[in-house]
Design goal:
Largest sheet: 12 strands, mixed
Shape: globular
Structural class: alpha+beta
Strand content: 35-45%
Low-confidence stretches: 1-23
Number of helices: 3
Strand order of the largest sheet: 7-8-9-10-11-1-2-3-4-5-6-12
Number of strands: 12
Order of helices and strands: HEEEEEEHHEEEEEE
Oligomer: single chain
């Protein structure tokens, strides 16, 4: 026979477990975000897989700024304006992207936005990596669900799986993630002199 006090203790523990899991996920994400923010810059190689297609490239971030380079697309973002050059289209597009749009381009943006836009919970993990599920608070978000895999030793993201509002799955794998030195703001701005004759379309 379970005594009343033991029964109350079990019930209390059952109520606290989801809260403790959420706090654990939030704490881990905060440590990841702090490590990235604490670096003067961070660089990584990436592979994006979606609809049976893959795209490889490199990314450099510093604060809210990033520079993305791949054979198909080059993109610069200085914290306000984004320039995107598609070799297929053959033109530069200027825009002021929304947070959702930035998260689809810059994989590290997910880590920085989780507090305001997502609820975090832990998933089954192992000693080498931790997995966290991020569920969008607003159902109108283009990104509805995120499964974030974090390297336990480095605290850097190694894999990000996005579930979009149209149910499409986008997988981003990150390798060679490492901190770097302070970079000038020009690193994250389009330099027209390096792309002579390429038209620039202002979409702002």
């Amino acid at each position: 026979m379970i005594t009343k006090n033991i029964l109350l203790l079990i019930l209390a523990m059952c109520c606290l477990l989801p809260l403790q899991a959420a706090e654990s996920a939030t704490s881990l994400l905060e440590r990841v975000a702090d490590k990235i923010k604490g670096s003067k810059s961070t660089s990584a190689s990436y592979t994006i897989s979606a609809d049976g297609h893959k795209q490889n490239g490199t990314i450099i971030i510093a604060g809210d700024c990033f520079r993305l380079s791949s054979p198909e697309i080059n993109s610069w973002y200085d914290g306000k304006t984004q320039w995107t050059y598609s070799t297929h289209v053959g033109e530069i597009n200027m825009s002021e992207p929304t947070p959702d749009e930035l998260q689809q381009v810059n994989p590290f943006a997910i880590v920085n936005s989780f507090k305001n836009q997502y609820k975090a919970s832990t998933l089954k993990s192992n000693s080498e990596e931790k997995k966290i599920r991020l569920t969008a608070v607003n159902n109108r978000n283009d990104i509805r669900n995120v499964v974030l895999t974090i390297n336990s030793a480095t605290l850097y993201p190694s894999k990000i799986e996005l579930t979009m509002s149209n149910h499409k799955i986008v997988e981003i794998r990150l390798t060679n993630v490492r901190p770097g030195n302070t970079l000038p703001l020009s690193t994250f701005r389009f330099d027209a002199s390096k792309y002579p004759g390429i038209p620039v379309v202002d979409l702002r």
